[in-house]
Design a protein that fits this description.
- The complex is a heterotrimer of chains A (about 325), B (about 600) and C (about 375).
- With about 325 residues, chain A is mainly alpha-helical.
- Chain A has 13 helices and four strands.
- In chain A, helix 4 packs antiparallel against helix 9.
- The model of chain A has no long low-confidence stretch (mean pLDDT about 80).
- Chain B is an alpha+beta fold and about 600 residues long.
- Chain B has a six-stranded mixed sheet with strand order 14-18-13-17-15-16. In chain B, strands 8-9-10-1-11 form a five-stranded mixed sheet.
- Chain B is globular and about 75 Å long.
- The two termini of chain B are about 40 Å apart.
- Chain C has a domain of about 110 residues.
- In chain C, strands 6-7-8-3-9-10-12-11 form an eight-stranded mixed sheet, sandwiched between helices. A four-stranded antiparallel sheet of chain C has the order 2-1-4-5, covered by helices on one side.
- In chain C, helix 4 packs across helix 5.
- The radius of gyration of chain C is 21 Å and the shape is globular.
- The chains are: A mainly alpha (about 325), B alpha+beta (about 600), C alpha/beta (about 375).
- Chains A and B meet through helix 2, helix 6, helix 7, helix 10 and helix 11 of A and helix 1, helix 6 and helix 13 of B.
Chain lengths: ~325, ~600, ~375
């Protein structure tokens, strides 16, 4: 198990490096090949040669790409100092880059925004797990019933309707129309109830989408599991039906659900872009969208890294959970 | 970064969402607002266009309260030296003062200048090359120390440090130091870092500018926020944008880029030293949004007072607002002209007849519709000088009869021109358009359709909008990509033909990279007119030259103007003393906005 | 082949419905039908038999003949947890130790499951829950019916594992099913079934998924345990070889019905149904050198939705035309006694069948 873990961690680290290289290539190499000077996109309307040169110097654009990548890695552990034209900016470790567009080091902004996204993802996950899995199990047990058909229609709409739709709809109804909820983000440290109030609509909206998917997968998996021989064995033992479903069938059903949960959480922690922009939550997703809009490369790089890291960690956690749930995995 | 799972039909779904959201908003409001278009409403809104070039509800303004801006975009920089966005210049007046600034009156007169930090408009020497300003008494920084002539000089000097402080306008640098001798304060060997020889500070209260050449727009240039004073001990260089040190009625309280900004009253500022900034509210805040639709919904819901960007509501919000809340809207002209430009370095647009063929062939009404129609898009532009710029004749000057007989395109005339160009059977070319502006893509498509009728076969090439400077700012790239038609827009930096047209029409502004003279205009007579303009002192003469330049540009057939852009801007119910001003091309005069209620 | 055990009165003549049978297990006219979109699947269509304690009944037939459906019917597993599916239609009577199961309270039947009647399944790998240890699964089976603490139950589990011949049971009790070999798994499955000393044990193809060498061990184990526990055992198999070792009586099923039944040695040495002949022909024999390929019964099992009219076996029967007037294709043959407690359902006359068996079939086997 330990060797397995170490191997996975190593693979994750390699993945991260590859991700960084790819991002660097996308932002630095491809425009170069296309003959576009990216320094120009960093200066204003009047592209003064001095400012273009300043940008080049600050961003190290004239350095070869491997030097740029090396500087980046070094910055993570040792911090980094940017200087140009008599201006010195220090970015202390862990330095994941420094944005000259907003004059901020990337790392503190990411750590400032991370809790928002984490809160959004976890809160929504609890909702969608509870409701999605419950609805899926009920649907499976009452297959073909009115409940089943109804739930699956709702699930289908949940899967097909984008956050843009459901989010704006819920805002229009509950926030602007009925004025029940003031959809405004309040940090949890300021006011817990304020935080809850600001998060409830995003949670529900996001959870609706995911609950729908989880209901569908739960239903399908549960139906499959119920046909398994060991379920028949459990009944042949004389177990109550509640135990057969709640223990024997559920444990197996949890496997694909957990896999999905790991992936989804990993992806969401990288930034629930649509939810965050729709509900104006100052999380990572909103930041990355801003960064893309403003061509704020260091932030794009930073968020992509965090996302990759989140997905990799989520993968790792899923793998470990897998081994906990399914003893067969432990062998390999 | 990830997007949450959504179907591949997101676009349709978004459209559907918008429709439903619009319906819901309509239903939720239950017609609470009346539709009397002009008479004001029960909620207190002043009426449609009530603040456009006139003052709305001036008497209702109370001292105090929090004025809430919403914005879908943060400023490029809040550093007075570095910002270039119009809304940033406007907003900077909350925390910065200039030697001279714009009058606090609506419309055309609002673009006129008045003394601010200075006691008068400066004493001009006989050769028109020396300006001497005396500073007012009682002007202070946010820590209570007086603003001195050295602070003014240092603030202007920062403009030379483009390698550190990029992004802002550099007119003053080009006018005061055309040969580029000064290296900027950060590389200045002078022990006070005040080595710029073009500015003298004989005493604490006196600033003297020595211009190598006279320039009639000089006062306009020192009215820009980039000429604001900066105190050397407070200059954090590139980080100054995070907390500019205030010389105005408000100071930075907190700023989190892309999230929010809060200004609070600067207690050191004295109303007596500043007769123009009303400074009604106690607090001024900006909340940044990433989704313009959501922002518009919140504006309509009354959670915010106005849009910082002042560039019009999103199509969905606009539709709802025009139906339900017309009294909360203003429909100013933005100062921007939206147009297609024909680079002369791309064949066959080197030939004026081929350019004319495209201009005559275009269906101006459908282009206007693609821009959003007369209200949201603007009036059909018939020449290249924006209405807010002195010398503009508006639709009265219509050499191609674009708003008249030929407004739906004139195929016969276009074919004649094609014959004259030696391409009787037409030709093929490429339209370059930014991919991040749906409206521009729509105009490109409209243009493509009408050109097809006259035999011009145009392919549309959408390029990455954030790379504009790199893609179309390089004439060689434009030539390589065969961009015969480029869809763009341009607005004045300050309301004069120089502040608008110099970078796009003057031959010396043709640059290998970062070029804005896309048409590659090398017309000596135009260059001469600009030079005459800078020397002209009488306003009537300036206006005349501006008109002449416009005519020259139109006669060259370099441009196909689409519209004099108009916006539909939201004016919250709480706002008082609201008016648009030509100084900021149809934006409200932010610094004089007040609230009706301080709650 | 070993000497077949002498059967005693394990199977009696089908009796007319009488409420209180004397037999330990009596199945009367059992019908299990499944409604489907294509029609009614008559998996079991009128089956009757009896079984006494301490005896073993082998039910033999091809897949789809209804033998597994019968066993699940007895266990009451057709009605438990068939979510959303159309429920099986079950009729007839199943008497176990004086209780009629089909009309009994389902919860009562549930309590009987595992305790009074237990089942061993074909594939122990899929029949055991992959996520729980062998021990946990046995403990669970025990604690459903015995109010004891985990420790006691665990002791019992180890005891049972030891009894079924699993080495180091105190260690293996914490192993997962996938850590066992096939034979060990089936032993564990048997241990789990027998943990509550059930009076009726149903083994559904207990050796099919196992290696040939392991098969014999498992069969020996079942036989030994039956002797020890004195349970009644039903062994369900498609392989006559399996029941040859175990069964006192044999019931041959075809198309959801019984075509022949009787004491094992009768069915083996004097079979009176052409289908049984076919099965015998396809049986691998250890005591003879294999000279030709096994002769499977030609054709495929009948559709249970459209069971052939007349004798269900007629499309595959080489002797279908022996009886006159096409009677095999029109009239369903009844089970008739062909000897002491030996019944078969065939239109051919006894003499004809005897002749064909002795002259044509037996010599080839």
């Amino acid at each position: 198990m330990l060797a397995y873990l170490i191997r996975r961690l190593f693979a994750a680290a390699v993945m991260l490096v590859v991700v960084i290289l790819v991002i660097f290539s996308i932002f630095f190499l491809i425009p170069k090949w296309a003959g576009v000077d990216i320094a120009l996109s960093f200066v204003g309307k009047q592209a003064d040669p001095a400012s273009v040169e300043g940008v080049r110097e600050k961003l190290g654009l004239s350095e070869p790409i491997y030097t740029q990548v090396w500087m980046f890695f070094k910055g993570i552990f040792a911090g980094r100092t940017y200087s140009s034209g008599g201006d010195v900016v220090h970015c202390s470790a862990p330095c994941f880059g420094y944005s000259f567009k907003s004059e901020q080091a990337v790392w503190p902004v990411l750590t400032d925004r991370f809790p928002v996204t984490l809160g959004l993802a976890l809160g929504a996950a609890v909702l969608w797990l509870v409701f999605g899995v419950a609805a899926g199990v009920l649907s499976a047990l009452k297959r073909g019933s009115l409940w089943d058909r109804g739930a699956m229609v709702v699930a289908l709409s949940g899967v097909s309707l984008p956050i843009y739709f459901t989010g704006l709809l819920s805002l229009a109804i509950f926030s602007f129309g009925l004025k029940w909820i003031k959809a405004e983000y309040v940090p949890i440290g300021h006011s817990f109830t304020g935080w809850l109030g600001g998060m409830i609509l995003p949670w529900i909206t996001l959870a609706f989408l995911y609950a729908a998917m989880y209901a569908r997968i739960t239903r399908a998996t549960m139906l499959e599991i119920l046909g398994e021989d060991y379920i028949r064995t459990a009944r042949a033992k004389g177990l109550r039906e509640q135990v057969v479903i709640g223990k024997h069938a559920m444990r197996s059903t949890m496997t694909p659900i957990l896999t999905m949960l790991g992936m989804d959480l990993g992806a969401l922690i990288g930034g629930a872009v649509l939810t965050e922009t729709t509900f104006s939550l100052p999380g990572l997703g909103q930041k990355v969208l801003d960064a893309i809009k403003n061509q704020d490369l260091p932030f794009i790089l930073g968020v992509v890294l965090i996302t990759s890291l989140a997905v990799l960690i989520a993968n790792l956690v899923v793998d470990i959970l897998y081994a906990v749930i399914d003893p067969r995995v432990r062998l390999s | 970064m990830t997007t949450q799972r959504t179907s591949g039909r997101r676009k349709q779904a978004m459209a559907a969402a918008a429709v439903v959201a619009a319906l819901l908003t309509t239903a939720a409001c239950g017609g609470g607002d009346d539709n009397k278009s002009d008479g004001g409403s029960k909620t207190g809104a002043a009426g449609f266009d009530a603040a456009n070039n006139k003052v709305a509800q001036a008497s209702l303004a109370k001292k105090g309260g929090e004025l809430k801006f919403a914005s879908a975009q943060d400023a490029d920089s809040w550093d007075t030296t570095r910002g270039y966005y119009g809304m940033a210049w406007n907003f900077m007046r909350y925390y910065s003062r200039q030697l001279v600034t714009y009058k606090n009156v609506p419309g055309k007169e609002g673009a006129e200048l008045q003394p601010d930090l200075a006691t008068d408009m400066g004493k001009l020497s006989a050769d028109k090359k020396t300006y001497t300003f005396t500073l007012r008494d009682g002007i202070t920084w946010e820590d209570g120390k007086p603003i001195t002539s050295k602070d003014v000089k240092y603030g202007i000097e920062r403009m030379w440090a483009q390698d550190v402080l990029s992004g802002g306008p550099v007119y003053l640098r080009d006018v005061l130091d055309p040969k580029g001798k000064y290296k900027g304060p950060y590389k200045d060997s002078d022990k006070e870092h005040l080595g710029l020889s073009a500015i003298d500070t004989p005493d604490e209260k006196t600033v003297v500018f020595h211009l190598p050449e006279a320039n009639s727009d000089f006062l306009q240039m020192i009215a820009l926020p980039s000429a604001s004073p900066v105190r050397q001990d407070k200059d954090t260089k590139s980080k100054y944008m995070l907390h500019p040190f205030s010389s105005g009625p408000y100071k930075f309280d907190s700023y989190s880029p892309g999230k929010d900004l809060k200004l609070v009253r600067n207690d050191a500022w004295k109303q007596s030293s500043d007769p123009f900034r009303k400074a009604y509210p106690d607090t001024v805040s900006i909340k940044f949004f990433t989704n313009a639709n959501v922002m518009d919904q919140r504006l309509i819901a009354g959670e915010y007072d106005l849009d910082l960007n002042q560039t019009g509501m999103s199509p969905q919000g606009r539709t709802v607002a025009l139906k339900q809340h017309k009294a909360n809207l203003d429909n100013p002209v933005s100062g921007f002209i939206r147009y297609a430009v024909f680079p002369q370095n791309v064949k066959p647009f080197d030939n004026i007849h081929c350019r004319n063929a495209a201009i005559y062939g275009a269906d101006h009404v459908s282009l206007q519709t693609a821009r959003g129609g007369p209200v949201a898009g603007g009036d059909i532009a018939t020449n290249m000088l924006p209405p807010s710029v002195p010398g503009s004749e508006g639709q009265k000057y219509d050499p191609y009869e674009s708003a008249g007989a030929n407004k739906n395109g004139n195929v016969d005339k276009a074919k004649e021109e094609l014959k004259a160009c030696g391409k009787p059977d037409g030709f093929s070319t490429t339209i370059a358009v930014r991919n991040n502006k749906p409206v521009e893509v729509a105009t490109a498509q409209s243009l493509q359709a009408s050109l097809k009728k006259v035999g011009i076969d145009a392919q549309i090439d959408q390029f990455d909008g954030s790379q504009t400077a790199g893609v179309i700012g390089s004439p060689s790239n434009v030539h390589k990509k065969n961009y015969g038609i480029i869809i763009m827009g341009w607005g004045p930096d300050f309301p004069s033909v120089q502040g608008y047209g110099l970078p796009i029409w003057n031959s010396k502004y043709i640059l290998d990279s970062g070029n804005n003279n896309f048409a590659m205009i090398k017309d000596k007579s135009i260059d001469k007119l600009f030079s005459d303009y800078t020397k002209a002192t009488e306003e009537s003469k300036q206006t005349e030259i501006a008109t002449q330049i416009d005519h020259k540009v139109m006669e060259g057939g370099y441009y196909l103007p689409f519209v004099y852009e108009r916006f539909v801007n939201w004016r919250g119910d709480r706002l008082a003393n609201v008016y648009t001003t030509n100084a900021y091309s149809g934006q409200y005069d932010f610094v004089n906005l007040g609230l009706k209620s301080t709650k | 082949m070993t000497e077949l055990s002498k059967s005693e009165a394990a199977i009696n003549e089908p009796s007319v419905a009488s409420p209180a049978p004397s037999s330990f297990l009596e199945v009367r006219d059992l019908k299990v039908h499944f409604p489907t979109d294509d029609g009614l699947v008559k998996s079991v269509d009128g089956l009757s038999f009896q079984l006494e304690k301490g005896k073993t009944l082998g039910i033999v037939g091809e897949s789809g003949s209804g033998k597994s459906v019968t066993s699940l019917g007895i266990m009451g597993l057709h009605t438990a947890g068939q979510y959303g599916k159309r429920k099986a239609q079950i009729s007839g009577e199943i008497w176990l130790n004086g209780t009629e199961l089909l009309s009994a309270d389902p919860d009562h039947v549930r309590k009987m499951r595992g305790r009074e009647m237990a089942m061993i399944f074909q594939d122990p790998l899929s029949a055991l829950h992959p996520y729980y240890t062998i021990g946990a699964q046995i403990v669970e089976a025990y604690r459903i019916h015995h109010n004891v603490d985990k420790k006691t139950a665990r002791k019992r589990a180890i005891e049972m594992l030891e009894r079924v011949g699993i080495p180091q049971p105190d260690k293996r009790v914490d192993s997962y099913p996938h850590e066992f070999s096939g034979g060990m798994r089936q032993r564990a499955m048997i241990a789990m079934s027998l943990v509550n000393n059930p009076e009726l044990l149903i083994a559904d193809e207990p050796t099919t998924a196992l290696d040939v060498t392991v098969q014999a061990q498992i069969l020996d184990l079942i036989r030994d345990l039956q002797k020890e526990f004195g349970s009644a055992v039903i062994v369900i198999t498609h392989d006559l070889g399996v029941v040859a070792e175990l069964a006192d009586d044999i019931l041959v099923m075809y198309g959801g019905r019984c075509v022949e039944r009787g004491p094992a040695e009768k069915v083996f040495y004097e079979p009176r149904h052409p289908y049984t002949w076919g099965l015998l022909g396809s049986m691998p024999r250890l005591d003879r050198e294999q000279q030709e390929r096994l002769i499977p019964v030609k054709g495929s099992p009948p559709s249970l939705i459209n069971i052939p009219s007349g004798c269900a076996f007629n499309p595959r029967c080489p002797y279908a035309d022996v009886p006159k007037d096409n009677v095999t294709r029109t009239v369903r043959p009844e089970l008739t006694e062909v000897g002491g407690r030996h019944w078969a359902a065939c239109h051919m006359s006894q003499e004809e069948r005897e002749r064909i068996w002795t002259e044509e079939i037996a010599p080839k086997l």
